[in-house]
Amino acid sequence: MISRNKRRKSIKGIYILLILFIVLLGLKLTWHNDSLTGKLISNLAERKETAMTVSPPKIVNKTKYRIVVDAGHGGKDPGAPGASGGHEKIFNLALAQRVYQLLKEEQMFEPRMTRTEDQFVELQDRAAIANDWNADALISIHANTYKDPKISGTETLYRHSDSIPLAEMIQEQVSKALGFPDRGIKMEQLKVLSLSKMPAVVAEIGYITNPEEEAILLSNKGQDLAAQAIVDGLKNYFGQNGSLNPPKTEESRQIPSPPALNQNQYKIENKVYFDGSAKDGKQVALTFDDGPDTIATPKILDILKENKIKATFFILGNRAKSHPELIRRIVDEGHAIGNHSWSHPNFDKTPMNEAMKEIEDTQDVIEDAAGVRPILFRAPYGALPKDKLNAINKMNIAVIGWTVDTLDWTGVSSNKILSLVHKQLRPGGIVLQHSANGKKHMANTIEALQQMIPELKEKGYSFVTVPQLLHLPDSQSQ
Ligand SMILES: [Zn+2]
Fold first, then answer.
1. Which of 275, 289, 293, 361 is an active site residue?
2. Rounded Cα–Cα distance for residues 413 and 449 (Å)
C-alpha cells in the first residue's frame, strides 16, 4: 500500500489513502480484540510466575464476585436417602445447577461448580477448588435427613465466624422462599467449611426424609424458588458488604494470603519421623501424649516452666474440647502442640473416613482453643497403616514417632523411666511420655521429669520442641 502511495503525485490522493489506512487499522484492531484479551490474560499468568511486583493490566471482569457452587455428595457417596427412595446427591446437583445458571446471569457474579455430574469429589478438594480460585464465597448445597419423618425445616451451617453474615442471609432468604420452618444457622465442623479460606456455608434446604418437604424439594417450582433465594441471599450479602468487601481485583488475587500454607516453606515427607539429626548437636525433644487433663498436665507445665524448657504435647481432641484453657496455656508458654486424634482409636482398625474425621476435628478444636493448627500428628499406639500416613501427609501434617519409650503409662517407677532415657537417648532423640491417662495421674512421670531435666542438661543436651528438632514451623498457620 505504501509503495503505491509513493507513485501517486496528487496530495489529495495521499490524504484519502491515509484516512483509509487509519480506518482499516482501526477495524483490524477491533477485530482482534478478543485475541488481544487472551494475550493479556496469558501475559498475566506469566507475570504471576515471574514478577509479583509488576502490576497486571486491568481485565474485563475484575468487579465480579467469584462464587463456588458445591453440589453436596455425588458418585459413590449418595448422601441421605429421601422419603420416596431417591438420594440427596440428585437433588443437590439439580439445585446447584439452577443456582449456577442464575448466578451466571447476574452481572456481579462469576460462578463455578465443584461437580457438574454424578461424580465423587473429596471434601478437601471442594474447598481446594474454592481456595485455588480465590473465590469470594462458597455455598454447598445439601438436603437434610432425620430418622423421624416429621422433622422439617431449613438450616444453614457455617464453620468460621466470618461466614456468619453470609449464613444468616442465605438462611433468611431460603426459609422465607420455601416457607419451611426456620431452624436458624449453626456452627458445624464440616471439612468443606473448615478448609475453605473464604466465607463458606452449607445450605441444608429442607428435609428429604420429610415427605411433604421432599415433594417440594424435588419439584421444579421448589427448586426455582430455592435457587432464586440462594442468589438473593448472595446478592444481599455482597450488596451490603460491597463497600466493606469489594470484589478482589486480579491484582489482589495474586497476593498470597499470609496464613495460607506455603508448600515451599517445608517439606512433609511420606514417612514417620522418629528423630531429628544428630548434626544439630545434643538436642532432645520431650513429648507428652494423651492430655490435657487437669492434674498431670498443669504439674508438667509447671516443671517445664521452672526449668525454662520447651516441649511438645500431643493432644486428644475430646480432652482439648473439655479443657481449652490448658491448650491455651500450652501454646502461651511456648510449647508445641501436636494432634493425637480425637478419641485415641487404633488407626489400624479405624475406617479411613473416621480416622480423617478424628484428625480434622482435633485440628479444629485446637485451633478454636489456641488459634494454631498443629503441623504434627502422633498415631495412638503408634499404629498407622500406609494409606492413612499418606492421607495425613496430604493434609500437610508430619507424623511423629519416638526413639525413647519411657513406658510411663504402665506405671513403672521414676527410676525405671530415668534409666530407660539414659540408656536409649541419642542426640536428636524424641522421648515419649504422657501428660494424662496413666496410673496415679502420672506421678512417676512427674517425679522422673524433675530429675531428668537437670541430668540431661548436665550431659550437654538442649531441649527443643519437635518442630524445632525437625526444622518445621510450629504450626500450619506460620
Ligand atoms: Zn496416646
1. 289
2. 12
